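INTERNAL AUDIT FORM
Audit reference: QA-55
Scope: verify that the stored structure record matches its stored sequence.
Auditor: D.O.
Record contents follow.
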Amino acid sequence: MSVFTKKKEDFMEWYLDVVRRAQIVDTRTEVKGMNVLLSNGYDIWDRMKKILDEKFYVTNHKNMYFPLFIPEKFLELESEHFEGFVPEVAYVTHAGKKKLDKKFALRPTSETIMYHMYSQWIRAYTDMPLKVNQWCNIIRIDTKDTKPLLRDREFQWTEAHTCHATPEEAVEQVKESMWIYGSFYDECCLPYLVTKRPKYDTFPGALYSVAYDTPLPDGKTLQIGTTHNLDQGFAKVFNIRFQKENGDHDYAYQTCYGLSTRVLAAVIGVHGDDRGLIIPPYLAPLQVIIVPILFKGKEEIVDKLCKEVLEELKNANVTVKYDDSDKTSGFKFNEYELQGVPVRIEIGPKDVDKGGVTLARRDTKERMFVERSKVVETIRKTFNQITDELKSRAKKLLEDSISEVVTYEELEEKFAKTNPGFVKTNWCGDVECADLIKDKLRADIRGTLYGKEEKTTGPCIICTEEAEEVVYISRAY
């Protein structure tokens, strides 16, 4: 079985088919861009949360929850920051038919409400570092065309906000956040480019911004997370002031970082095929499905072995299900392939007679016979093999998505008929040149490689003046 549309023929139609048929999202809410995250989608997101929470725990972050309603005066305090959000902010103006004296914004992001509280919690250098993570929903009434998970008006995310006593500690916190996100993306087997955003595209109020962009098979890129060094800008606005060890006073140095259910979209888009989802084993809520192959008169011996394998895998901390429903084995094969379950175990009378099971991999479709005594060992080995295979595919996708040009004619040709992924080129740093790329090619300068200085190979691709940076350009969701 395949989804309605072939992935290579029309990626977006394929993607919409998969999220619908694999029961990831239901868009029939009558509220555009505000969808139901169904159990299959939520289970994967929940597993992502658990993986990230483990990393937050070992790096001494504390999970908290802050109000959904943001007083309008908080937004006005940090006007530079919220200028870009204003067109997307949704407001609560009435309680029933009664107009409120003061309207409230529905959380487009949480800096203001969190930093208002930080100013009350922090008094001395001993109160820091303060590292808080929040899992919550975000409301942004984006006027652009919405696509489930890729661009929603309401979405789930994690946002962490930290305070430090010195600028050096803030820089180190940026690096720590990059380890948290980078290791998480690696567990998702995702390809990604880490770039420092241009100054004009830096998070409002930040010293600098670092972003993580994933190439998708249609040649567009998807921003799947960001990290920002906020320096002291927000601390001064919200009066997050502390006494230093020497008795002097200073404002806190801050960072923030976040990622959303867009990561789920990236996993679907990067790994899936014409049969549906492919979920990395250590990300999959259901890692193994056991399907009995029944023949008349042999039901009991097959059922007995299925239940034995089920209990053995449960005891080995593998998430496993035994589907003994009345549906045909062929239907079950198709259904669990669509849902991306990494490994299928088939057990029929012949397997019982031979003293083993048949194991099928979701990623390569490979099937193999496994001796009964080696089931757990083989499952664990197969999980690692699937992970390695998906990482290898991701690495190739990233490598294939990067090309290089030195003239505007070459750049124009790249974007003429397709979405070419990341195009590496030279840029003078002038916003006018960046705007021209955006206006004429509907593409954006994503930034320079973070932590790696690349030497220019020619003049600016637009104005032909001396180039200052090597940048990466793409069309993005």
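Auditor finding: record pair retrieved intact. The chain has three domains: 11-271, 288-383, 402-474.
Action required: none
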